């Protein structure tokens, strides 16, 4: 096994196809820390695929790490499928198109047919392309909402869901057996096109996707006559064309796009963190809202699988959380389908374990079963797959996660900001025709079901030492878990890694039936909760807080106190 310096030298000699990499390698000559940071480990391939900083080295996103991962995927699909094929899409990030072509060249060289979009397309449209073209797998080049220096490589199974843990482990085993430079087959993109090994995904697939999105509408004629006014930002990503196409199709003509963020731009100059969860990313849109005065601001992230909103609140605009939008959408869907007689028998809604528990109260009101799954939308997609196997996919009415990901319908198996944008606009139009603002709709929901306040705090740990610190924090919380947090007694402790749920009041234990995952949950008195997990794609530990209260103001105070107490606990 080569040392970091030997690997650096090896890359200097062999990573010659990308001038940017050669330039970077020469610039860090003699800088031991910089060399170590790039070569101390491989970029990890997990269920989220690859994600990392763009640059030279084994711990960076570049054509060589992409090729090696793709060779591993090629070996896997060739062993698992006869006549395998793979769909590819990519977003607006730096080198996304380059990495997409690099992946296609490896697959084609391995005798695997590639279906690639003619231009950048959102993540949900990759999920759709896999199923529509009966592919063995799919690749989406994206780092979602990360800063501009990142890119990533998400892998999908033949079901249109992100790859399962078992399949990802099988691919990882293949990758680990490969030499970065000599173990990979690749060909020329244009030659593979001429040979018929790479073909462009046809317009018919895109049109079919749009039709399936439109089928999820509950009041198809409502928007055209509602007078709804929208400001939209794709945050320099892939949502611009698809979202505007769908808004036009449902009759919303008054759409103003944020000009600085309209066109694809992987530098994200006006939003360093292109994440609709973060207010800073929406500042350009909010500024435009104060001039245009729309009924709604929509903001989709770069790969258009998530959407954030802001709505008029007095003289300004208020941002809604993912939990609030998801809960409002669930109630709107339940209410309208019940009213129209289109609610299926034994309906099901799916949410992740860190998503708001107000869902349970709404679901109870409408006779809907709630299924809780691990964090990651693939587990929601997996539940749709289970229903499909039984011929019962129509029972699925909605799924969402707190991080702004929503899906109605079973046509894709990942979160979809295109259908979410449509339904959010339709819901806003519906309330507008009733003389109810979105602020008032939220207020009515809380009056009916109680106020639930949620927040998420990410703790960042960079580099090798950061990885060790993250492991130590999780280990300490697991083995020496607190019995109270911020003066609230811990009544239940759930360890999803050991699959044990423990009632701390009675001492009774129960088995958690979800797949094992490095997640810990502390259920507290007074309806409060803390869930903590390391991110699967970033050097972060994420804590999710829930408090219940009689008013938003009271809830906000409680949530801040809970965050401060728990933060001090894990960082001390």
User: What integer is the average pLDDT?
Assistant: 95
Shape, per Cα inertia axes: globular
Number of strands: 23
Q: What are the low-pLDDT stretches, counting only 5+ consecutive residues below 50?
A: none
Sheet with the most strands, sense and barrel status: 8 strands, antiparallel
N-to-C CA distance: 37 Å
Radius of gyration: 24 Å
Structural class: alpha/beta
Oligomer: single chain
The amount of beta strand, in percent, is 15-25%
Helix content: 25-40%
| Count of helix runs | 18
Describe the 3D structure.
This protein is an alpha/beta fold and 572 residues long. The strands form 4 sheets. Strands 16, 17, 18, 19, 20, 21, 22 and 23 form an 8-stranded antiparallel beta sheet that branches. Strands 1-5-4-2-3-6 form a 6-stranded mixed beta sheet, sandwiched between helices. Helix 5 (96-109) links the parallel strand 2 (85-90) and strand 3 (113-116). Helix 4 packs across helix 5 (96-109) and helix 4 (63-80) packs across helix 7 (165-176). The two termini are 37 Å apart. The model has no long low-confidence stretch (mean pLDDT 95).
């Amino acid at each position: 096994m080569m040392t970091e310096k030997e690997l650096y030298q090896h890359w200097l000699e062999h990573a010659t196809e990308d001038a940017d990499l050669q330039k970077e390698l020469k610039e860090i000559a003699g800088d031991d820390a910089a060399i170590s940071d790039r070569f101390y480990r491989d970029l990890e391939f997990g269920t989220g695929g690859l994600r990392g900083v763009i640059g030279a080295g084994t711990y960076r996103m570049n054509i060589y790490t992409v090729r090696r991962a793709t060779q591993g995927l090629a070996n896997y699909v060739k062993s698992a499928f006869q006549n395998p094929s793979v769909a590819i899409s990519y977003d607006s990030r730096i080198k996304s198109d380059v990495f997409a072509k690099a992946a296609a060249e490896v697959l084609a060289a391995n005798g695997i047919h590639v279906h690639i979009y003619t231009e950048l397309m959102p993540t949900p449209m990759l999920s759709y392309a896999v199923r529509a073209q009966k592919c063995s797998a799919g690749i989406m080049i994206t780092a979602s909402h990360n800063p501009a220096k990142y890119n990533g490589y998400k892998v999908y199974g033949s079901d249109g869901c992100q790859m399962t843990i078992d399949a990802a482990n099988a691919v990882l085993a293949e990758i680990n057996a490969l030499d970065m430079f000599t173990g990979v087959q690749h060909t020329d993109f244009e030659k593979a096109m001429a040979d018929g090994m790479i073909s462009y995904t046809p317009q018919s697939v895109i049109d079919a996707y749009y039709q399936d999105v439109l089928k999820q509408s509950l009041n198809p004629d409502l928007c055209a006559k509602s007078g709804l006014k929208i400001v939209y930002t794709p945050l320099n990503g892939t949502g611009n064309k698809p979202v505007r196409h769908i808004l036009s199709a449902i009759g919303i003509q008054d759409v103003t796009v944020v000009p600085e963020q309209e066109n694809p731009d992987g530098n994200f100059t006006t939003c360093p963190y292109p994440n609709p969860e973060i207010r800073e990313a929406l500042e350009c849109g909010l500024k435009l809202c104060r001039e245009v005065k729309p009924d709604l601001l929509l903001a989709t992230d770069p790969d258009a699988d998530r959407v954030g909103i802001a709505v008029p609140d007095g003289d300004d605009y208020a941002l809604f959380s993912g939990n609030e939008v998801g809960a409002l959408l669930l109630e709107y869907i339940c209410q309208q389908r019940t009213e129209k007689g289109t609610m299926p028998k034994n309906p099901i809604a799916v949410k992740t374990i860190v998503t708001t528990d107000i869902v349970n109260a709404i679901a109870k009101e409408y006779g809907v079963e709630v299924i809780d799954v691990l964090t990651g939308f693939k587990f929601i997609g997996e539940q749709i797959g289970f229903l499909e196997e039984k011929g019962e996919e129509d029972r699925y009415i909605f799924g969402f996660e707190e991080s702004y990901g929503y899906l109605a319908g079973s046509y894709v198996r990942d979160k979809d900001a295109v259908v979410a944008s449509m339904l959010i606009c339709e819901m806003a139009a519906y309330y507008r025709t009733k003389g109810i603002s979105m602020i008032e709709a939220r207020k009515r929901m809380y009056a009916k079901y109680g106020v639930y306040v949620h927040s998420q705090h990410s703790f960042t740990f960079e580099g090798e030492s950061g990885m060790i610190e993250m492991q130590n924090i999780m280990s300490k919380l697991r083995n020496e878990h607190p019995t109270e947090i911020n003066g609230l007694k811990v009544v239940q402790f759930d360890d999803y890694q050991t699959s044990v749920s423990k009632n701390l009041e009675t001492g009774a234990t129960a088995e958690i039936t979800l797949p094992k995952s490095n997640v810990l949950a502390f259920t507290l008195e007074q309806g409060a909760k803390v869930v903590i997990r390391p991110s699967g794609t970033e050097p972060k530990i994420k804590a999710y807080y829930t408090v219940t209260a009689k008013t938003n103001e009271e809830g906000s105070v409680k949530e801040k106190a809970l965050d401060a107490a728990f933060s001090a606990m894990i960082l001390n």
